[in-house]
Structure formats: structure tokens, C-alpha cells
Amino acid sequence: MPRMNLFSKIVITLAVLIVLIAGLYFLSNQTSTDVLRNELNKSNTSKLDFFQSQVDANMDSVTLWPNLLVRDPDISELRDMAPIGGGSLDLDMINLVKRIQQKISTQESSINWKCSLYIYSPRLGRVITVNDVRSYDDTALKQRLKQGWHVRKDSPDATNSYEFSLLTVTPYYAMNQPEDADLIIEVRFNSSNIVGMLDEFNSDGRRNPFFYKQDVGTIFNNTADRSVAQELVGKLEQQHLMDISNQTIELKGIKYLVNTKQSPVTQWYLVDYIPYSDVIGPIQKSNHLFYATLVSLLIMGCVMAYLLYAQVQVPMKRLIQSFQRLKQEDYSVRLVPKGNGEFSYVFMRFNSMVAQIQELFGTVYLEKIHVREARLKQLQSQINPHFFYNCFSFISSMAKLENYKAIVAMSQNLSAYYRYTTRQERGEVKLAEELDFVTSYLEIQRLRMNRLHFEVELPSWLRHLDIPPLLIQPLVENAVLHGIEGRAGEGIIRLTAKEEDGEIQIRVEDNGKGLDEAGIRSLMNKLDEPMGEETGCGLWNVNQRLQLRYGEEAGMTITNGEHGGLIVTLHWPKQHSDGKEIGGHD
Predict the structure, then answer these.
(1) Which of 399, 392, 490, 494 is nearest to 438 (CA)?
(2) The Cα angle at residue 561 between residues 560 and 562, in degrees rounded to 5
(3) What is the arrangement of strands in the sheet containing 566-573, beginning at the earlier edge strand?
(4) How many Cβ atoms from other residues are within 10 Å of residue 436's Cβ?
(5) Mean pLDDT over the full length of the chain
């Protein structure tokens, strides 16, 4: 019997794994569905309990209103006053009624529900509301005296609008003896309050809650499917299922998860139903997708197994046979690449190894150039202003002093300064532009230090000389911060540009506190070392940029000045300036 090849083994293994996975998934899915159904019923019951408790709490709050009003002094005065028959009210009685109306208004606005209070005085023969005092039919009122909440339709034609009312009598025994009543308080509210709460409860769009009471009617939310709800109520009443909190009911071939909760206050049932497909539908879609995925995986697995056999096992056999021929000292053996597979790539790469090595040298050389350019851009990006917050502090101080000229001058120079520094896309700028930028910086510093004076000398034949941007400003900044600011008295900075001995020279001189010879030597040594935490970033960057741009002959020199400060000179060969000769002066 021949041995099975790699393709057959992989296909059989995949088939067994997929069957096991499908079986385990089926069992797990059944368990998960049962758990989900139970948890959903618990969640729905909990939400119904909470919602019902909110409705009952509002009704309980309204129920307490008559008891609170009965104890009010003005209400007690109204109750105990002498009968006046059908006569008009005197001034004291009118003031009493107004006070009672204010208290009715306060009570009605104490909750979110829209409720109405009616205070009937049999001795006055009038009913007091928040906006009116009028006569009423005493006989009809006493016929309505009953314990607890009463519900009636707003009008004979109303189908989903009910009025809830609660009558309270003093003394309390007068509920059974209406002729002894000296005060009757009635609380009313419309079912629209409950409809609004049902709409909020139905905010997720999946639920369709409604209230139902036998022989009274049904209160729906505004988006309810009334035909389905009425059919559901009929089936619940017919099969005496209204008191079962969680159940599954089928209506016209559609299953619904039904949850009910009866209110102990009003005896109304809160009914909520969700189509069973809304709950199980996503699970069924997930099941179909999973089984389709398994079938797809089996097909793809077979394809991959064949590709693996054709692309790996067959070339591997050829490679083993070639090694056996090499073992027999047959050095003429060659493997001919076929197709675009991995083995074909390995064979071709072996034949082109030498060419790849030659290309590697060229790649390394280009990488060095890229690294050099990237380093130059990185060094340029480090030249950033260090006095940003000082400028805004100066503007704030001048604003407090109402020195508007200083504010305008600072703003204009600061604008010119940052407009220049943000134009980093240019690799080179004119020397005149660079010196204008430095002048803006010095003007800013002079606004901060009145004792600072500066001079800029630029020959006309050097104005159009191209240099890297932000090359001179760090030198001037060091002169101000480390030279002028550290020394009392008048501060002077001189900036000159010239051509001398075949070199372009830019010199920055100050009369600051300067450095001794040892300090200058230490600073010059640090310019040629890698930048560390103690190395000045500005001077080091300028020196590095000069050498990267103009070669090793370019650089920076630092000497003591005649007036006690330092002289920092930038120099580079004239022929490296754009490869063009600079015209001589007249």
C-alpha cells in the first residue's frame, strides 16, 4: 500500500479539526443561547420593576398631596369657616383663596408630572383651582366619592387617553357619609404622563411597553403597534397568563418574549414584548456565518495543502536529488528556477550573489549621503528661538503700562522673526535676508534692554551671497545672553561681513564679560566633539553646518575682543559659495 503524500495528510487533518470545532461550537452555542435568554428575561424583569417603581413613586408622591394640604393653616381656615351660601366673597376670603392658590401652584410644580389639584369647600359651595374659583355640582361630586384611584376616559371617543383621580375627604369618615364632609381635595392627572414615561422607556427602539387593566383599557406608548399589543392582551387574558412574568408567546407565526409586572398601587399590568428574532436573530446570523466560514476554511485549506505540496515538497525532492549528485562529485548539476515561488527565488539569488554584493557597495555609499543630508536637516531644525516666553512677558508688561509703541515694535519685530524662522523649506537664503532677520532679533533684545546698542556692516557686493539659514543668529544670541546680560553698563554688538584672503568672513563682536584663554580653548575643543549635555547647542550646530555645507576648511574661530568681550568669526572658502565668484567692490 503506497504511503500518503503531504497533501492527503493535510486535508484529512483539516477535515477532522473542522468537524470537532463545529460540534463544540454547536454545544457551546446552545448553552449560550439558553443563558442569554435567561439573562435577558432577568434584565427585562429588572427594568420593568424599576420602571414600575418610578411610576408608582410618582403616584405615591401625588397621593400624599391631600394629606399635606389638610395640615396647612390656610386650608384648615377654609375648612372651619362658617357657611356663606351663594353670596360673594369678602376681602379676607379673597386673600385666603389667593394664598391657597399659590400653595396649589407650588404643589403642582413639585414633580415632573402635569397634575391638577381641586379643593372643594361645601360650606362655600365653591371649588378652588390654581387659576380659578367657581361653583360646582355638590351632588355629582359626592356621587364620585370612593376610596383609592379612579380611572375614566377623557372623552367617550378617546381610545388612549385616561384621567386618573384621587378624592380625599375631611373628616375621613365622611367618605361613607358625604353629607358630613367639610372639605374635599381631588388630585387629577392625565395618562399622557405615563405615555411620556413609556416613550422614554422605549428609547432604544426595541421595546413596546404598555399598561393594561381589565375592564378599563390600555395605555400605549406613541410608537406602539396597537394591533399586536391588543392581540397579545387577548391571548394573555384568554389563557390566564397575565400573572406569569416571563414567557414566550407566538402570534401569527411570530414568537415574542413577553414580560409582565403588576403595579401594587394601581393594579395595572405593565407589559413589554420583544420579537424573539431580535434576540436570537443575530445569534442565528452568527451561526450561519460561522458554518460558512468553516466550509470556506476547508476549501481554502485544501487549496493551501496542494500549493504547499507543489511549491515545497516537489522542489525539496529536487534539492535533495541535487545534493546527492553533488555528493557523487557531479559539479555540473544545476537547478533551473521555475515560476515565482520561494525556491525559485533562492535559486536565482544564488546565481546573482556576486552582482548583489557589487550593488551593496553602491547602496552603502548612497546611504552615507542620505545620512549626511538627514544630519544637516536635523542640525538646522535644532536652531530654535529661546526667548519666546520673554517676548510675551515684555508685551504683557508694556500692555499693563499702556506703552503701545513698545508693544507695536515688539510685535512687528517678533512677527518678522518668526516669519523667517518658519521658512525652513529653503536650503539657502541671501545674506541680506539673514542680517535683516538678525536685526529683528537685536531690535527685540534692545526693547528688553535699553542699554543694548548694535551695528551691522554689510558691503553691497555681499548682499546676494547665498548662505544656510539661521547661521548668524545663534552667534548673536550667545553674545546677548552670555556676554551683554552678564555685564552691567552699556552693551555693544558689532556684526560685519567681508571677503578676505579668499574667504568669506562674518564676524560678531561684543563688549560682554568674555572668557579667559582656558575658557576659549575649552569651548573650541567642544566644537569638534560630539554634542553632549554640557556642549552649547547653538555654536556646535553652526560649526557642524558650516563644515557639512562648505567642507572641512570652513569653521569658526573664537578670540578675545579689544573691548573685553568675544569675537566669533565664521569663515569658509569663497569658491564654495554657490560655485560663483563674488564681485569686488567699487
Answers:
(1) 494
(2) 130
(3) 452-457, 491-500, 503-510, 566-573, 555-560
(4) 15
(5) 79
Residue located via cell numbers 542680517:
435
Q: List the one residue out of 526, 523, 522, 509 whose CA is nearest residue 566.
A: 509
* Cα–Cα distance measured from residue 81 to residue 9, given in angstroms and rounded to the nearest whole number: 104
Q: What angle do CA 425, 431, 433 make, to 5 degrees?
A: 65
Note whether 383 and 541 are within 8 A (CB). yes
The string of pLDDT tens digits covering residues 222-280 is 888 888 888 888 888 877 777 787 888 888 888 888 888 888 877 888 888 888 777 77
Q: For residues 273 and 260, give the distance between their C-alpha atoms in angstroms, rounded to a whole number.
A: 9
Q: Are 261 and 52 in contact (CB under 8 A)?
A: yes
- Which DSSP letter does residue 5 get? -
pLDDT digits (tens, 9 = 90+) for 35-74: 777 777 788 888 888 888 888 888 888 888 888 888 888 8
The CB density around residue 164, as the number of other CB atoms within 10 Å, is 19
Given this model, what pLDDT does residue 390 score?
76
User: How far is 304 from 393, CA to CA, in rounded Å?
Assistant: 70
475, exposed or middle or buried, with CB in 10 Å at 0-12, 13-18, 19+? Answer: buried
Asked if 276 and 297 touch (Cβ cutoff 8 Å), the reply is no
Q: Which residue has the cell 460540534?
A: 23
How far, in Å, are 437, 469, 546 from residue 422 at the CA level?
Answer: 12, 11, 21
Distance, in Å, from the CA atom of 144 to the CA atom of 124, rounded to the nearest integer, reads 19
For residues 12 and 214, the answer to whether their CB atoms sit within 8 Å is no
How far is it, in rounded angstroms, from Cα 127 to Cα 135? 6
Backbone angles phi, psi at 561, to 5 degrees: -90, 170
Given a contact cutoff of 8 angstroms between Cβ atoms, the answer to whether 100 and 78 are in contact is yes
